[in-house]
Each structure stands twice: as structure tokens, then as C-alpha cells.
Write a structure and sequence with these properties.
The protein is of the alpha/beta class. It contains six helices and seven strands; from the N terminus they run βαβαβαβαβαβαβ. The two termini are 26 Å apart.
């Protein structure tokens, strides 16, 4: 997910799957990455009983993804233009309590310069907000092709007492049904993808 290349929105976004409600039939799945068509629309097709929400700061990508959603008639898919670093809390607060089951953070921007690393999407505050929102046994999948970024994400989730790593080593394969295009291109070049899965206590 990109969190920097478009102006951050100032107002909290409105969650399209419903404002604060008591509905128990929805099982939200939040993906902090909507750049790639196959990963999100593919998983949405395979699991129509889930509500998928994609978050992205690049508004043209969000518009494109929503166009794919409409074209395919996948009414359980929703995409929002937002900056996760300042919009995640109001989005999570819009959900009914205890229904968020899955979160994926896939190939976020690396922000290599030290002065810019505060813009990376997985900050300690992000981890704490997800810990508050996820239901017990909820899962977080992180992926990156930049080892430094993957290690930082892994360490921040590992440091939070609410999360348990699925295993100590990097995951050898993607547990999701459909890989992202970035993942496929990275593997095609023979380069590694660093993945980790965390479970909410």
C-alpha cells in the first residue's frame, strides 16, 4: 500500500459496509493494498460471505479497483481512498465490535530514507489499533519483498502482547488463495518474498 503519493484526506472516511451497527452477519477482511486486481477481486470471488475492504492512498488506483468491483458485480468488495496512518482508527471504529477477522498488509512502500521512515504503514500505533479491533483468533498477514521492511513489520507485531507469531521462520508460501501481482513478479525474478502471519490472542 502507498501512504504518501497523494494528499491525505482530512475527514475520516465513511465505511461503505455500514456505519456503527450491530450486524453479526458480516465478517470484514481489511487489505492494506489494492494496487493489484487479482489478489483482492480473486479472494472476494472465492469468499463471498466475507466483506473485503481495501485501503489505498492513491486515488486513481482506488477508482480503478472500484471499477473492477462494479464490472465483476462483487458487492462484497469495497475500496477507500485514505491514509492509513491517520485514518485507520475511524475506519475500525465504524465496524461492529469483534467482527474483524483478517487483515493483510502487502508490499507497503519501503521509504528507505531514515527521515521518511515514520511514513511507513506499520507503526506501533497501527499495531495497537489492529490489536484493539481484531476478534480473538483474528489474523494479520504481512508481506514484503524488502527484507528490512518485512523485519520491521514482523518485529512490531511480535512486540505487541496481543499477537502470537504463527511460526518463527518466514512463511514459505502465501496462505491466501490468490497472490498479488507484485508477489508473482518478484517470485518470477527469483527474488524472495518475506511473509509472516500473526494470530490475535
Amino acid at each position: 500500500m502507498s501512504i504518501h503519493s497523494a494528499k491525505s484526506i482530512r475527514r475520516p472516511p465513511v465505511l461503505p459496509i455500514g456505519k456503527k451497527s450491530t450486524r453479526s452477519s458480516i465478517n470484514p477482511y481489511i487489505s492494506i493494498s489494492v494496487r493489484e486486481r487479482g489478489a483482492f477481486t480473486g479472494n472476494g470471488t472465492a469468499a463471498t460471505r466475507l466483506e473485503f475492504l481495501g485501503l489505498e492512498i492513491r486515488e486513481p488506483l482506488v477508482n480503478q479497483a472500484n471499477g473492477w468491483r462494479t464490472e465483476l458485480g462483487l458487492l462484497n468488495l469495497h475500496y477507500l481512498f485514505c491514509n492509513v496512518n491517520n485514518s485507520l482508527r475511524p475506519i475500525l471504529d465504524s465496524l461492529p465490535t469483534g467482527v474483524l477477522r483478517q487483515v493483510t498488509i502487502q508490499f507497503p512502500d519501503p521509504w528507505f530514507k531514515r527521515k521518511h521512515q515514520k511514513r511507513r504503514v506499520v507503526q506501533p500505533e497501527t499495531v495497537a489499533e489492529l490489536a484493539d479491533a481484531l476478534c480473538p483468533k483474528g489474523v494479520v498477514l504481512i508481506q514484503s519483498d524488502v527484507e528490512e521492511v518485512a523485519v520491521e513489520m514482523r518485529d512490531r507485531f511480535s512486540a505487541h502482547p496481543a499477537f502470537i507469531p504463527h511460526q518463527e521462520q518466514w512463511l514459505p508460501t502465501n496462505p491466501l488463495a490468490v497472490p498479488t501481482e507484485r508477489e508473482l513478479s518478484t517470485l518470477k525474478r527469483g527474488e524472495p518474498v518475506y511473509r509472516a502471519l500473526f494470530i490475535k490472542r
